[in-house]
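tool_call: predict_structure(chain=1)
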Amino acid sequence: MRSAPSPRSCHRSSAWRWFALTLALLLTACGGGGGSSTSIDPDTGLTVSASMVPSNDAEGYRFLTQATFGPTASDLARVKRIGYDNWIDEQFKLPIQSSHLSTVEFSASTLGQSQAYAHNVTHSWWTHAVREPGQLRQRVAFALSEIFVVSTLTVDDGRSAASYLDMLTVHADANYRDLLEAVALHPAMGQYLSHLGNRKEDGTGRVPDENFAREVMQLFSIGLHDLEDSGRPRLVNGQTVETYNANDIKGLARVFTGFSWHWPSAKSAVEWWQCFWRTLECRDPSQDVRSMTGYGQAHSTSAKQFLGVDVAAQETADPKASLKAALDRLATHPNTAPFISRQLIQRLVTSNPSDTYVADVTRVFRAQNGNLRAVVKAILLHEEARRPPSVGLSTYGKLREPVLRLSHLLRALPHTSARFTAGGAAPFYLADDTSDPGTQLGQTPLRAPSVFNFFRPGYTAPQSAMAAQGMVAPEMQITSETSVLGYANFVATILERGWGQWNVNSGNWDIQFDLSGWDTLAGDPPALIDAMAQHLVGHTLPDDERNLAVSAITAMPISATDTTVLAKQRRQRIQAAILMVAVSPAFVIQQ
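tool_result:
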């Protein structure tokens, strides 16, 4: 495998310097504002408020970085035309072009596989992230996948994992209570947190599995400690208050007994236990993607006490009734609104939202009965998201996780995918695993190392300035000197050779970048770096970073007399300009 030329080696020290600045959050960002006047868009008939229209490209880029997998010129033009609020509404109304399930199945069949695996899910995820017009729905679904975590490290069945992604996508603007039930009953989650096939106590030592009961409280709903509406822990005599105890876990564990593989109507004649265990007599492809069935024969009839709720002992086992009581309680628990709201703010906008920001979104969550469309809209339209105060920029924003940096580059830079161009029932990118932090991104979508995601929402680097200020930086948990240099080398490499898996039909790496649009600027380093920064982040780089980039590119030769060599030199300058911006704080930090 060829390594990339000079852009990777020549600017490694520059990349590290800029990352050091990045991790300290030393950028400033453009502010903006709008008037209160309104107008009617002649083509759509939408009422456009001036206060909802970005006053410059930087404001538009900020919004689209929060709401999509990367700004594009067409997205920016649309937001500037109809405003943030109308754009959000429009995005949620867009039909989903294709499902992850159909893409994964087509990927597996095209590659001659007998079944779908995790790498087929990677193909689908990147295809939807880059190509799907309904970017906001996809972006929210990704945020949800990092809260309600299922990992293909454990769930290797590609169809089941793809179906789980589809479920999150469909519920990205649904009611939280409905989402929680869909998560609890999905076979991918049932396998991941081991409540699929969970059986009632038998009086001889067997007790229900407590794994999902614990995590559905700790990670998916109420968290570990009582919270104020601001998302901060509620203190009693200076101490935090636990939201649940061991007895609550035991009670909920009894609720989640009796749920196992979907019992297809076509298999109604077989014994219940054959479908419960998915024996050969009751095996159907729908079981990988359909919600689990509640089997009364395996459901605990004992009384179930949890979180102040008492489900009386049942004469006849009723798993659906038990489940409803549990999910109703979790969805309406006082902690759920601030717990989920704060994490969604972190995933979309900023790692350290103000108390007011979280409390405002919490109120919307409660007032709208957990409607996620309303919650996401409140998050993205909040004053703190749209016009962060300049005095607080040193603590505002978030380190962008690696896959979001790559998705931004793929959406911004012209490229082709030979596999996608080949078409078919569900065209896909032959995308590759990017888990190696030393040579890739240190992250592959839906492949977290544990149920705690790639990083924890409350993570802060030990013995750091952030820790001293009481700040968190979740994405820093997967950031190290190795990953910083690995990311810079990865970007340089894919710009040189392309990205993805090897495509035997094209005889090349599947995704190839077309950088010819900047060829006329290759001889003018200041114009080149300014154009690239404007294209990728919506504004020019700060003077010190710009001067460094211009000097580095100017030092690169562009005087060959051979036309082939000269063309390569010009491209290398363009690659270097992209690399300079891609490792700059303006790109790596979302502000």
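agent: Residues 264 and 393 are 55 Å apart (CA to CA). Proceeding to next step.
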